[in-house]
Write a structure and sequence with these properties.
The complex is a heterodimer.
Chain A lengths: L1 E4 H15 L3 E5 L15 H5 L4 E3 L4 H13 L3 E5 L10 H15 L6 E6 L14 H5 L5 E3 L4 H13 L4 E6 L7 E4 L13 E4 L4 E5 L2 H17 L3 E5 L2 E3 L3 H11 L2 E8 L4 H13 L8 E5 L8 H7 L3 H13 L1
Parallel strand pairs in A: 2-3, 2-4, 4-5, 5-7, 6-7, 10-11, 10-13, 13-14
Antiparallel strand pairs in A: 1-8, 6-12, 9-11
Chain B lengths: L1 H7 L21 H26 L14 H9 L9 E3 L5 H7 L3 H8 L33 H15 L5 E6 L6 H13 L3 E7 L17 H5 L5 E6 L3 H16 L5 E6 L19 H8 L2 H11 L5 H22 L30
Parallel strand pairs in B: 1-2, 2-3, 3-5, 4-5
Helix pairs in contact in B: 2-3, 2-4, 2-11, 2-12, 3-4, 3-9, 5-12, 6-7
Classes of the chains: A alpha/beta, B alpha/beta.
Chain lengths: ~325, ~350
């Protein structure tokens, strides 16, 4: 039992799956000798060898396409996007080829595409993106987005074992900031498609995922202390398919829902979640479903600008307080 | 381009140049020569039958012909080790011949074009977009270039597992303009995977000629800088395509990495059956049909060399027509897929997309 970071949990999960199943291999830019831009695969090349840890050209479509081809033949590739921002270069391959493969042709395509997402790190417009909305719209993909070290490990292991293509979105702001003690002696697995109540509450539900789980928890703590408002925080963990049952259970319990995501507002996941609550739990609501999101601009670099654009704990406090009083 | 091509076309064998069976090139037997002829004829006759069905309104959607390109398609696939879990290819829309060689059945093609419930994709995908992982062919998607990375990955799996298998993939003079083609080829070249790429220079990408796709005379020139073996051949010479592919496949299998073969050929029909080819210079199609049809050239050669006889070929033509008749009769009345069968199978889990609420009202 040792306290480990979110990053180390992810690394352990990958390592264990490669030990567990020799069909699993890694490919991506700088994943081998260098161990990955964030060192997620440090030591993998030395341990697993060149045939299972493959450095590739800067060619995201080739990385994903080759992963798909190898997966058809029975292997289980894990493709790394050095920053998730670059997954757009493989958008065609993921949405047209990979996502349709099972439906149109019965092709097994058990691949994982993973990479660091998100802002709060002064990364600027091309090293800070959240890409879930771009793929959320595509039938045939699964999307997971862990917020805790346990789920970082549990979801990568489940993703590797899953028979469908999975996008594994990991938040770089959480990499070394989040720590947790995980058991050594059990297989840490987080089921895909299942949300987690991160904090129980009765007045307002916050439905969120990724880095804003932690900001929502901070907000909940502050609201409890300052206002006596009891906030429930639901960590979605899997974005596709959404865990409707958990979302509706929380909506029915608190009757007020605030959706928080770091991604931009228009066309973001909050819209879909709102529509589902409207369809499935309308009569339980005592207020409008509200959103806290990034502003609709590319993510700027300067700390003053980035902090202004992204949702902050204080934004969540104010929004939840407003909704609680509604 | 076309004048250049004329110079590349092999001279037909002179009368009296008849040779013995011992001189059949590249180790082919008489039986194999006839088998290749059968695939050539099957490809063309099946497409002609599909054209008739298209005009009768039986084909759902577009119809894509490979008229004039059957030679390179059949001969390249014929150079592979075929059978269950042997070599592997991915065709394009004009590689029906390659699919038939790998084991696709005429009835499957007919069912696909008519969107039958009994088709290999159960009515989910069109025309030749289907595959068979056991027999070794993978259906393309419409996004040209995308099959290059995918086939690089399939070839990579052969390399990683130490399997003595080769992957072969087709790309056109238009498809080579895509980024995915170049990304995939570069990756495959660096990894030295056993991949053979057939670059089909068929003179037209829909209505666009090669000089508006790239500023180089040959496709092979464009890929040599990737550090791969690349050559340009007459794509309408069946035996040359076979021999060249056979050698390339052997090199790939022995670890020499990616092999590229540019086949100069000509697309005699439009992009699809609806296309009136108004952009083609007058007389060009007829000239290719008359002087440089791959099946005519092949038939003439194997008869003139004494490797077979004209009646033997006529007999194959008859058998092929009968086979297509039987295939069509067996499937023409098959039903379309049941509507709600559209929902399952997007993912393994959940097993089906939910039926929408208003369909339950």
């Amino acid at each position: 039992m040792a306290e480990i970071t979110y990053l180390e949990a992810l690394r352990q999960g990958l390592w264990e799956e490669m030990e567990h199943d020799d069909r699993v291999f890694i490919l991506g830019e700088d994943v081998g000798r260098y161990g990955g831009a964030f060192k997620v695969t440090e030591g993998f090349l030395e341990h697993f060898g060149e045939s299972r840890v493959i450095d590739t050209p800067i060619a995201e479509a080739a990385i994903v396409g080759a992963a798909a081809g190898a997966a058809h033949m029975g292997l289980r590739p894990v493709a790394e996007m050095q920053f998730i921002d670059f997954i757009s270069c493989a958008y065609d391959m993921l949405t047209n080829y990979v996502a349709t493969a099972r439906y149109r042709a019965g092709l097994p395509t058990p691949i994982v595409v993973r990479g660091p997402c998100g802002g709060y790190v002064r990364g600027g417009p091309f090293h800070s993106q959240n890409v879930e909305a771009a793929f959320f719209h595509t039938p045939g993909l699964k999307i997971v987005y862990p917020a805790t070290a346990r789920d970082a490990k549990g979801l990568i292991k489940s993703a590797v074992r899953d028979d469908d293509p999975v996008l594994y979105l990991e938040h770089k702001w959480l990499y070394r900031r989040i720590k947790e003690t995980l058991p050594d002696d059990e297989d840490v697995l987080t089921p895909i498609g299942s949300a987690r109540v991160a904090r129980e509450g009765k007045d307002v539900s916050i439905v969120t995922y990724g880095a804003t789980v932690w900001k929502s928890l901070e907000a909940a703590e502050e609201l409890a202390k300052a206002d006596g408002i009891s906030v429930e925080v639901l960590d979605l963990r899997t974005l596709l398919p959404l865990d409707d049952a958990s979302i509706m259970a929380s909506a029915r319990k608190t009757n007020k829902v605030l959706i928080v995501h770091e991604d931009t507002r228009t066309g973001g996941l909050a819209g879909e979640i709102t529509a589902r609550i409207n369809e499935q739990a309308f009569e339980w609501l005592d207020g409008p479903i509200m959103r806290v999101t990034a502003h609709d601009v590319p993510l700027p670099y300067a700390p003053t600008l980035e902090d202004f654009v992204l949702p902050q704990t204080d934004d969540i406090v104010k929004a939840a307080r407003w909704l609680a009083k509604y | 381009m076309i004048d250049n091509m004329a110079a590349r076309v092999s001279a037909p064998a002179a009368p009296g140049d008849a040779a013995t069976a011992a001189s059949i090139p590249v180790g082919l037997t008489r039986e194999q020569l006839l088998e290749m002829y059968r695939y050539l004829r099957l490809t063309r006759s099946l497409e002609e039958r599909l054209t008739a069905l298209y005009r009768q309104g039986k084909v759902i959607g577009g119809l894509f012909r490979s008229l004039g390109q059957e030679g390179e398609s059949v001969a390249s696939a014929f150079a592979l080790e075929r059978g269950e879990h042997k070599d592997f290819l991915s065709p394009l829309i004009r590689n029906l011949g390659a699919m038939l060689v790998m084991g696709a059945k005429p009835v499957e093609i007919l069912r696909q074009y008519m969107a039958k419930a009994t088709s290999p994709t159960v009515g989910r995908e069109l025309n030749v977009h289907f595959g068979d992982l056991v027999l070794g062919f993978l259906g393309q998607i419409s996004h040209l270039g995308d099959m290059i990375p995918v086939m690089a990955g399939i070839a990579l799996s052969f390399k990683l597992r130490g399997e003595p298998r080769v992957a072969l993939v087709y790309i056109g003079d238009g498809g080579m303009s895509t980024g995915t083609f170049h990304e995939g080829l570069s990756f495959a070249a660096v990894q030295r995977v056993p991949l053979v790429v057939i670059g089909e220079y068929n003179q037209w990408a829909y209505s666009t000629p090669p000089e508006r796709q790239f500023a180089a005379p040959h496709l092979a020139d464009r890929v040599k800088p990737y550090g791969i073996h690349a050559e340009t051949i007459d794509g309408n010479d069946v035996l040359e395509v076979y021999a060249t592919t056979k050698a390339a496949v052997a090199r790939a299998r022995s670890g020499a990495g990616v092999q590229f073969i540019e086949v100069k050929t000509y697309r005699r029909k439009g992009h699809a059956e609806h296309d009136n080819q108004s952009y083609v210079p007058p007389g060009e199609i007829d000239r290719w049909a008359k002087d440089n049809d791959p099946i005519d050239r092949y038939a003439k050669r194997i008869v003139e060399r004494g490797w077979t006889t004209a009646p033997a070929l006529t007999e194959i033509d008859r058998a092929v027509a009968a086979e297509i008749d039987a295939a069509l009769a067996s499937c023409i009345d098959d039903p379309l897929p049941a509507a709600a069968s559209a929902l399952p199978g997007v993912l393994t889990q959940p097993g089906a997309a939910p039926l929408l609420w208003y369909r339950r009202l």
